[in-house]
Design a protein that fits this description.
Strand content: 5-15%
Radius of gyration: 20 Å
Bound molecules: zinc ion
Keywords: Signal
Order of helices and strands: HHHEEHEHHEHEHEEEEHEH
Shape: globular
CATH superfamily of the largest domain: Glycoside hydrolase/deacetylase
Pfam family, one: Polysacc_deac_1
Number of strands: 10
Largest sheet: 7 strands, mixed
Protein name: Polysaccharide deacetylase family protein
Helix content: 40-55%
CATH class of the largest domain: Alpha Beta
Length: 255
C-alpha cells in the first residue's frame, strides 16, 4: 500500500527547493534572537543562502566605511584615535596575526570598533577545497566567539580573492556578507581605486591594509585619510549597521 508523505517529509522536500513557511518563521525567529541561522538550524536542514559580495553600500547618506586588516590594532596610537574621534571602524582579524594582540582588540572593541572575520591563517582561498575554506572561516568564527563572545557576520577573504566555494563556506559559518573594498589606502597614505571612478563617493568601503613600509603608522594614515574624507563632506559610518539594512532590503526585494 502506498503511504501518503507526511507533512514533515513534504516540508523537507520543499525546503530543499525553496524553503517553506515553517522554515521562514524559524529563520526570522533565529535572527531576532541574534543567532546565526546556519548554526541555529543545524548543518543538514537546508542549504544556506549565499552571502552577497560588496565593495560599497547603496546609500545616499554622506558616509564611507573604514576597514582594517592585519595588525592595525598593534599601533598603540590607533585605539586612542578611534576612541577620541569615536570612529566606528571595522577590523578584519586573522588569528595568526591578531592572536598575540587580543588585549588591544578588547580595548578597541570597548571604544566602538567592530571585530570581523579574516580567516585563521590568511591563505588565498580561491581554488581550495570546501572543507579547507570552511575550516579557515568557521575556525576564526569560533576563535572570535570564544575570545570576545561575539558572532561575526562579515568576512573579508585574504587578498580579496575568493570563489563560489568561499561563499558557500562563509554561509555555512554564519557570514551574511563578504566585504571587499572600493578604495585602498597605500603605505604612503594615498587612496587608490582598483576600478571605477577614482574619487570617494558615499557608500564606499575603504580598506586600510597593514603597510609593509612603516613610514606612517595606522593612526597617522587614518588621520590623513580623515582629512580627505571630511574635505569631501563625508563622514565615517558603521559598516555593520548599513550592511544589515542593505541585506534586509535585498532579502525583502527577493535578491
Ligand atoms: Zn589580510
Amino acid at each position: 500500500m502506498r503511504r501518503l508523505p507526511t507533512a514533515a517529509a513534504l516540508c523537507a522536500v520543499v525546503l530543499l527547493l525553496a524553503g517553506c513557511a515553517g522554515a521562514a518563521g524559524e529563520r526570522a525567529g533565529a535572527d531576532a534572537r541574534g543567532q546565526d541561522p546556519a548554526h541555529a538550524a543545524g548543518p543538514l536542514v537546508r542549504p544556506a543562502r549565499l552571502p552577497p559580495v560588496v565593495d560599497r553600500v547603496r546609500t545616499r547618506d554622506p558616509v564611507v566605511f573604514l576597514t582594517y586588516d592585519d595588525g592595525a590594532e598593534r599601533d598603540p596610537g590607533f585605539a586612542g584615535l578611534v576612541s577620541e574621534r569615536r570612529l566606528p571602524v571595522t577590523l578584519f582579524l586573522t588569528d595568526r596575526v591578531a592572536g598575540p594582540g587580543y588585549g588591544h582588540l578588547a580595548r578597541l572593541r570597548a571604544v566602538g570598533a567592530s571585530l570581523q572575520n579574516h580567516t585563521l591563517d590568511h591563505p588565498a582561498l580561491r581554488g581550495l577545497p570546501h572543507a579547507g575554506q570552511r575550516a579557515e572561516i568557521c575556525g576564526q568564527q569560533h576563535k572570535l566567539r570564544s575570545r570576545f563572545g561575539i558572532r561575526p557576520h562579515l568576512f573579508r577573504p585574504p587578498y580579496g580573492t575568493y570563489d563560489r566555494t568561499t561563499l558557500r563556506a562563509a554561509a555555512d559559518c554564519g557570514i551574511t556578507a563578504v566585504v571587499l573594498w572600493r578604495a585602498s589606502l597605500s603605505a604612503d597614505g594615498e587612496l587608490t581605486y582598483p576600478h571605477g571612478e577614482p574619487r570617494l563617493r558615499p557608500g564606499d568601503i575603504i580598506s586600510v591594509p597593514s603597510a609593509e613600509t612603516e613610514s606612517l603608522t595606522p593612526a597617522e594614515r587614518t588621520v590623513r585619510l580623515l582629512g580627505e574624507i571630511e574635505g569631501r563632506g563625508l563622514r565615517v559610518g558603521r559598516l555593520e549597521d548599513y550592511l544589515r539594512h542593505e541585506i534586509t532590503g535585498r532579502r525583502a526585494a527577493g535578491n
